[in-house]
Design a protein that fits this description.
Layout: E1 4-8, E2 18-26, E3 29-31, E4 38-39, E5 45-46, E6 65-67, H1 68-78, E7 93-102, E8 108-109, E9 117-118, H2 120-128, E10 135-138, E11 140-143, E12 152-155, E13 201-204, E14 207-214, H3 215-224, E15 230-234
Parallel strand pairs: 3-6, 5-7, 7-11
Antiparallel strand pairs: 1-14, 1-15, 2-7, 3-4, 8-9, 9-12, 10-12, 13-14
The structure holds zinc ion.
Length: 237
């Protein structure tokens, strides 16, 4: 039985990296006629998805909430461009990261849940070592400094869920729009049956800011001495 770990940026770091950036396109937010929520909970980015060929591309450039039917129409237009079974929550990002970057960046840089970054050589070493499911994409970040580092953005799709036992107070999700309002539990348990077997790094599909890595990912990061991530094993059930 493989072990799973929650991965995050360390509380303290000698790296100073700062981003003022956003993805080129995103799904709008959503206003639900059923539960009345206005929300955008998608933190997943698909940096390799090019929306520019769609006639409605301008509709993906301005963050705003849309009524349910219009949101659904825009979501279904991009569905053929993303991996099958992507949840595509309101606010899901597409295309390269655009903006400015300053400071120094660790080989694995997970300070921004929407834009996990990696050095190209670190990505290559992880892949050669057999870590599965890692895809890095070119960014369009501008650096205001000499000798800027090359940074790729990792595409980390959502897979897997929390086990219901760790969220006893969680209300049912909205049957119309999927709005699912709950606090991340202090003692998370992963739902073993929902966890992917084909990739070593993913986000939780019911909490897209949470990164989960397999034992293989963690062991490899340790062995290659790649800075810098904190990890904690999570129980599964
Ligand atoms: Zn709703």
């Amino acid at each position: 039985m493989t072990k799973f770990y929650r991965l995050r940026a360390p509380r303290q770091s000698r790296y100073t990296g700062h981003l003022s950036a956003t993805h080129k396109w995103a799904l709008p937010g959503l206003r639900c006629p059923e539960c009345k929520a206005t929300w955008a909970g998608g933190f997943t980015a698909y940096p390799g998805v090019d929306v520019s060929a769609l006639t409605e591309r301008g509709e993906y450039e301005v963050p705003r909430p849309e009524p349910f039917d219009e949101f659904t129409r825009l979501r279904e237009r991009v569905r053929p461009l993303v991996p099958p079974e992507s949840p595509l929550l309101p606010g899901t990002k597409f295309g390269p990261l655009v903006g400015t970057a300053t400071g120094t960046f660790s080989p694995l840089f997970f300070y921004y849940a929407e834009m996990p970054l990696v050095h190209p050589e670190a990505l290559e070493r992880l892949r050669v070592a057999g870590v599965r499911g890692l895809r890095g994409f070119r960014t369009e970040l501008r650096f205001r400094q000499r000798n800027p580092p090359e940074l790729l953005e990792l595409e980390i799709p959502p897979h897997g869920r929390l086990h219901p036992d760790c969220t006893p107070e969680r209300p049912p999700r909205c049957p119309k729009c999927g709005w699912d309002d709950f606090a991340f539990p202090e003692d998370p348990i992963l739902d073993a049956a929902s966890l992917p077997a084909h990739t070593d790094l993913f986000r939780l599909s019911d909490f897209e800011t949470i990164f989960i890595a397999t034992e293989r990912f963690i062991d490899t990061v340790r062995r290659l001495d790649l800075e810098e991530v904190d990890f904690r094993e999570l129980p599964t059930r």
